Protein 1
Amino acid sequence: MHETTARSPHRARPEWSSHAAFSPVAEIDLAARRTEIATDEGFAVWREWGSGPALVMLHGGSGSWSHFFRQVEFFAQNYRVIVPDLPGFGDSAACNPDADPHRMARILAAGIEQLAETAPVHLVGFSYGGIIGSFLSLLMAPRIGGFVIVGGVGFEARRQDVALSSWRHISGTEQRRAKHRKNLRAIMIANPARIDETAILIQQSNAERSRHDTRPTARSKPMTANLDASRVPLAAIWGEHDQLAAPYFDERREWLAARDPEAPFKLIADAGHWVQYEAAEAFNTALTDCLRSFSKRADK
């Protein structure tokens, strides 16, 4: 295993990276402590901000660290915020052609062990990141002080089917971006007035660098068995208009309570699947409450 550090990506920057609406994302990226950690199975790019207890955040499918763009600065005031690009997404290597979640979790566990050493960590997993977090919890259960599932998928609860628009065959910049906006409305952001240019550019940058199909893993519904085996403390957050989950929140509440009767269940008003972007202030408050609940439980 080895690491290299840099303050900005070494790859050539695509056209969307210089767009004015993307500059807030680029500025937070440049402020990160960036580390590439390689293992025999592949490498992942990690970004860190702040200091304090380790808070590891795992992005969703077709995503990158920027799924948590509106959380980094807030939580870096009190935590060491550690966010990888999952292997096969963002700036990380396309080292996992079958999107094997076990392999992905092993690569991430090696990174956490190197960055956080022996310190306890709290996990936050958004959507597909929640699935990977459940595999990671199997590997690192004694180290996990708590695991917050955000917009969770991959377990036994009814969900909605969402049709997405294809953009790969479109060469025109504006037409391609229009498709990304349409997909944001379909699966990520409930209120179309909140689909701003920054959200569209984050979606574009992430989707166009994604090399994995996460759907087969999600359809196998691995989270229940993983969390039953690991027994880590849990919490969950959803947007009330989550395009995948609504209106079946009673099933999700019951599923969570069956895994952990003390787990907080937060439903954020007027927000969709990408709740941490669409309702950032409410989400940050909810996540803070979840993290505090883990600390209180540890002190009992």
Note: The beta strands are 2-6, 33-39, 42-49, 54-58, 80-85, 121-126, 144-150, 234-239, 265-268.
Protein 2
Amino acid sequence: MQNSILLIDNDRELTAELSHYLASEGFDLTVCNDGLSGLLEANRGQYHLILSDLMLPKLSGFEFLKKLRSTNQTPVMMLTERDDQFDRIYALELGADDYLCKPFNHRELVARIKSIVRRMLYFKPMEMQNTIKSNELVLSTTTREVYCHDSELNLTGFEFEILALLMSHAGTVVDKDKIADQVLRRPLSSFDRSIDMHISKIRKKIAEITDQEKIKTVRGAGYIFLTGSVARHLN
């Protein structure tokens, strides 16, 4: 079965070009030309990945992403001509998994797509059991569910895998390069804040359930998932 991708973009020349190119790479592409029809299609179909522009008619890329994330955790890569740091950060805050500026190299797009699809289909963190329990969190790699103090956390794909990696190394510092390598499957650039934003989203979702700190930033080193004993020692 081909890997299915939903592309939402009103640039018909680009969508025709990508349809041909991605088909040659083994992907099955469905195209919508506005945000509203894209949202309906995203919730109706089953896709491995969604590619969405920011500047869309009827429903902007930001509005599309905000509405999508209320019910749907399909990975989303934003494609846009707006190379603005605020836009990138805001998209990540709303739940985007990746961000690529136009014009882009088709080979880079395909490499990122394959990385996300491969990660979603086959990702199994090393040194990790099917279920991890630590500091009142329970994470299942089989069902991809996470419970915090018995309440379910609704995480995106990247958020789940970052938390899984941190929990599998609970009590020890995990540096950003390791997270980038094992989760994003790409090196970090000097000003890439994507991991910081994903961590921030995880923290906010945990904070809606409990005021207990679960993930601590170790300046200049990385992040640590706190066990009860480590939390007491650091405090």
Note: The longest helix spans residues 106-122.
